[in-house]
Design goal:
Length: 273
């Protein structure tokens, strides 16, 4: 929490006095927190606090635009690689999970171009591709819950492989800024809105905060034949549900690694309960 507070403070302001104020206020929150909740819910107050103190509701905006720009520059070559593959869907899943390195909230360093190519050579520690492929039948509906800006470009490459199978895809983004999560502006900027229907979750919560979700999102979630959730926040807030869920992510913390039964740094495409 303290690391996230400082990361966000530095993104929102260049003033060290503001940084200190945000960290001190975040420290005051800690004693009153319940540990009986997801990491996503624990982190949320820190970002709300930073936005309030700096009067900056979207401190990651420039970083998100840069992530989109770099990802869109890489997309044509990645698309060629997918199309040349002996298994384009499998390759597209690898491209999409490689995009999950773009996570500014936890403060880890990454190089989009270098790390995407590296992850594409990595095998899934858990691989539900075979089961997922069977789900993708004509007339089926897939709700794809996105994660970060930049990453949305790689999601788009995966969706382009799914649509020809006759599957209707609905893509979900956040309703308002939170960290570097994709919002409707990113969906328009990257061309996602021209490819499929894009809806919002109803809030700017990390992952999916069920009480705050919109009627449209609830309906899409309830009626989808399958749901693909990208990233940590969506895993943390959805993994205990019993709908037909799939989770696609790079494992970035020990707790999630333990929950899935894999190692830190692994990539996974796992079916839910």
């Amino acid at each position: 929490m303290m690391r996230q507070a400082l990361n966000t403070a530095r993104m929102a302001s260049n003033d060290p006095a503001i940084h200190l104020k945000i960290v001190k206020q975040a420290a005051k929150l800690v004693p009153g927190l319940s540990l009986n909740q997801t990491p996503a819910r624990l982190s949320q107050p820190v970002y709300d606090l930073a936005a309030e103190i700096t009067c900056n509701k979207d401190p990651y905006r420039l970083a998100k635009r840069e992530s989109n720009r770099i990802a869109m520059r890489l997309a044509p070559e990645l698309k060629k690689s997918i199309e040349k593959s002996s298994d384009p869907l499998y390759s597209a899943l690898h491209v999409a999970v490689a995009g999950n390195i773009i996570d500014l909230g936890i403060g880890h360093k990454f190089d989009i171009e270098r790390d995407v190519l590296s992850i594409m050579k990595q095998k899934f520690a858990v691989d539900s591709t075979r089961i997922f492929r069977k789900e993708l039948k004509r007339g089926k509906t897939l709700l794809y819950i996105g994660d970060n800006a930049g990453e949305i470009v790689f999601d788009k490459l995966l969706i382009e492989q799914i649509l020809p199978m006759g599957v209707e895809v609905i893509f979900a983004v956040k309703s308002a800024p939170i960290i570097n999560d994709a919002v409707m502006r990113d969906a328009k900027e990257t061309g996602m809105t021209k490819l499929v229907k894009v809806i919002t979750t109803g809030s700017n919560d990390i992952g999916v905060n069920w009480p705050n979700t919109s009627t449209e999102f609830k309906k899409a979630f309830a009626t989808a034949d399958a749901i693909l959730c990208k990233g940590h926040g969506n895993f943390e807030t959805c993994h205990d549900r019993h709908e037909n869920l799939y989770f696609l992510l790079k494992v970035k913390c020990d707790m999630v690694a333990e929950e899935i039964g894999v190692k830190l740094g692994d990539i996974v495409f796992t079916k839910g309960n």
